[in-house]
Design brief:
92 residues; 0% strand; globular
Length: 92
């Protein structure tokens, strides 16, 4: 799944921040990584951006602390609340 690779790459980027909260750099890194993968299936840059904004918002809502998000990557990948972002974008 593309979301899985986005999470893995984002993890590497996020680990460099070593902060507990989501900084603007953390968000930007996550979003950029997500966009690379999402553009392959979303059909348009706008849909890819919408998907990544949805995923990022939901990840932050679930785990406002970056370190908590990193500790729960497996949960994030399989979380129906987060996975629903893809269905929302594809349904447009």
């Amino acid at each position: 799944m593309r979301f899985r690779s986005a999470i893995i790459v984002a993890t590497v980027l996020l680990l460099s921040s070593c902060s507990n909260t989501w900084t603007e750099d953390d968000k930007s890194s996550f979003r950029k990584t997500c966009l690379v993968d999402a553009q392959a299936w979303a059909g348009s840059p706008d849909k890819a951006a919408s998907y990544c904004d949805c995923v990022l918002g939901r990840v932050i809502a679930r785990y406002p602390n970056v370190n908590d998000a990193l500790e729960h990557l497996d949960s994030l990948i399989n979380d129906p609340y987060i996975r629903a972002c893809k269905a929302t974008v594809k349904g447009r």
